[in-house]
Structures are given as C-alpha cells and as structure tokens.
Amino acid sequence: MDEVTGAFSVSQTTLNLLRECPRCFWFHTKRHIVRPRAAWPSALARIDEVVRTYWNRYARRGQMAPLFCGVLDGVPVIPGVEAWYDPATGLYLTGKPDACLKIDGRSFAPVDHKSRGSRPRRVTSAYVLQLDVYQLLFEKNGYPSAGYGVLNYFIPEKCDLGNGLALTIDVSLVNTSTDRALEWMVRAREVLEMDQPPAASGACPFCGWLASMTLSDHGRFLLIGKDTKR
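Above: the chain's sequence. Below: its structure in token form.
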C-alpha cells in the first residue's frame, strides 16, 4: 500500500495469486499474511541469473545475444518502466520484466526467461497473465505494444559435463492483451473492497489444507492469525 495515497499495489505476482485464489490474495494484500511459498530449486534460480546477465550484457549495446541470433526478431533494449496508477481502479500496477525486444523499430514485446527441467507442453495461464501485465506496463510507460510477448525456456540436457553444461533454448511467442490485464485489476479492486475475505478457490491447495486441519491434534481450532481453545 502507498503510504501517501493509501492505494494498494498489484503486480503480475499478486494478480496471479488472485487468479489462483481470491481468499489468499485478500489476506496477502489486506492483512499481509503471506501464503507459504513452494520450494524452488536453487540450481534453476542460478541459471536464471546467469541468463539475465548474459542477455543484458548485449542488450546494453543494443545487440542480440549470439545464442538468440536467428531465433528472435527485433533488437534488445532496456526500457525504463515505472509503476502506473490506474484511476479507474485506484490501484498501482508494478513490475519489472526480465527483458524487452524492440520490433520493427516502433513496437515493444516483453521477454521473460524461464528455467525448467523439461520442455513445456503448453503456455500456462500464469505466464500469459504475466506477459499481459508487462505489456500493459510498457504501454503506460510510452512503449507501444507489439501484440505479443516472448518466453525463453532454458532446459538442461543430458551431456558430458567435461564439455560444459548443455542448455536447449525453447522459444514461445504468446499473444498478449492489455484488456485482460485491466480486467484482472478490476477484479482485484472488487476483492479488496470486501470487508471480509472472499470464499476460497476450490482448487486452492493451501485453503484446502487449512480446511482439513480445522481441529489440531492438541484440541485447538486453527484460524487465520489465531489459535483458539475449543
């Protein structure tokens, strides 16, 4: 929340949390009760860091990194992206894309690097919303939309480590929609205006676990933020 205006901030991360479970989003944003995070392999996080450093080394020169020559169109750039205040919802939208491509000298496409253990079967809804949000931020910062975003998947392959670690690059072009991102901001405003938390998503494993653990082994009811004797 902005300390001066009192406005809430949302990002691709919190909007994806809303997409997964409005109840978890409400507690996260209004009560600062953060849902437990899933474990993330440190090796993949390190690959992400190495990839970003490699990409930015060439982007600062306005050059395509050699690994992507002939694979991606456009010129890598590093745009200045600031938070945007949406007067329609009263929310700030924040975010920092991994990278950006300038297409045909006039439009811009967000790029996100993903490290995975295997090739993706499809582009997930979370990744689509992520690129939608980045595209909206680009437009509101004066960078016209290319109408699509780019997902670069980096996948370790079986190899002889004596010759170095082999990575396969799998590129997906994803159609983006700023209208979809705005619709999620409207939904976020609706949830944040609620005095009480909304119902949980039926598919939320965290809320499902909490519901199944209403009564603990010690004879206490487990409530959000409380531990009350029966």
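The chain is about 35% helix and 20% strand.
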